[in-house]
Amino acid sequence: MRMVDIIEQKRNGGVLNEAQLAFFIDGVVDGSIPDYQISALLMAIYFQGMTPAERTLLTTKMTASGEQLDLSEIPGIKVDKHSTGGVGDKVSLPLAAMVAATGIPVPMISGRGLGHTGGTLDKLEAIPGYQVTLSDTDFINQVAQENLAIIGATGAIAPADKKIYALRDVTATVDSIPLIASSIMSKKIASGTDALVIDVKTGAGAFMKTLPEAKDLAQALVSIGKGAGMHCVAVISDMSQPLGYQIGNALEVQESIDLLKGHGPEDLLKLVLTLGSYMVVLGRKAPDLAAARKLLEATITSGSALARFRALIKAQGGDERVIEDYTLMPQAKYHTTITAQRRGFIAKLTADKFGIASMMLGGGRQKAGEQLDHGVGLTLHKKVGAKVEVGDPIVTIHSNQPQVTAVASLLQANIEISDVVTPPTMIYQVIDD
Questions:
Q1: pLDDT in tens, 52-69
Q2: Domain ends where: 325, 358, 382?
Q3: Between the CA of residue 142 and those of 49, 103, 275, 304, what are the distances in Å?
Q4: Is 304 assigned a catalytic role?
Q5: N or C: which end of the chain has fewer CB within 10 A?
Q6: Strand ranges (DSSP E) for 205-312?
Q7: Is the pTM of this model over 0.85?
Q8: Are residues 346 and 270 in the same domain?
Q9: Is 82 a catalytic residue?
């Protein structure tokens, strides 16, 4: 078998079989296929796409390329959640704690942010001492004892994906649905969970800018999950404006704790309850979504979800005192507020531009491996649909540099005020297998 023949077949719109995809993934992992041929096939897939069967086969081979966790020692149905990424998306933090508080084991393997999207691990590392790396044994034991652990993936899980992802990032093939879907699902299947709820973002701050694109990706993810024997649900949610009111690592941890204390932002709570309800039903702790929602709401009023989050922090070496004292996390030195220049209603807060603004402050990465400033970010005072008068604060910039002219200009150019506005829909569609 020759790699050039596989490239040619896909370039011409052909369907690759199991042997060809196995040859490709084996060659990626052992280094026998050069980067230029891997990149050529990625570009062919980008333009020609893949059938559902091809996507499932590719994912299966990527999953099998490395270590696969065995979580069978943990009693109960293990349920995880994944997001395709957004701005202000701190959902995993309160969601995991709330679901764990209902008695469902949540073994969550998360990632870091890149570009305008934030990463769960980056947020957790704003908590002094929090360790995102655990051995497999410690990870399994913690989930068994606490119902919850949130860690980063090791290089042993789906190593083919690590190499392919790096090449996608430099060959303009990131936004390919077969490649996105196989990347996400290979790691989730290898992590050993029984069920998965995926938050597929759509809008300016998402990789899938349009609803049809998001629907195609959601269907691909659910199809792959079903083919691998994993019960999978995809929720398509809005990312046209930032989620919640805080953008930035320490700020988003603070907002997550606020939600668990019962006073988080409405849009964040709605999304957490929607995703969480599906997780609770999949975990068989409730017969339907309405009952699941009540269970989740009770974890806030009883304080059990906040207790789970505190236990998570403590178990992974973090300073649990941040629950009461947010100033234990990194803080910005300077604060600059942008105000409304006219009266009306907030019509647009372009999500990806707000994410880029946070990145410019040091809160995000332009390249993998860059160090972050966990204290910087943005606080929104108004969301789309809110009424404003001249001089009302719209966004505060938290920075560790006294001059933020470029950041302020970017934000001002992406705040739109009009006389009439319709707030965006939060949940567009749910796709179940």
A1: 999 999 999 999 999 999
A2: 325
A3: 40, 14, 23, 17
A4: no
A5: N
A6: 231-238, 246-247
A7: yes
A8: no
A9: yes
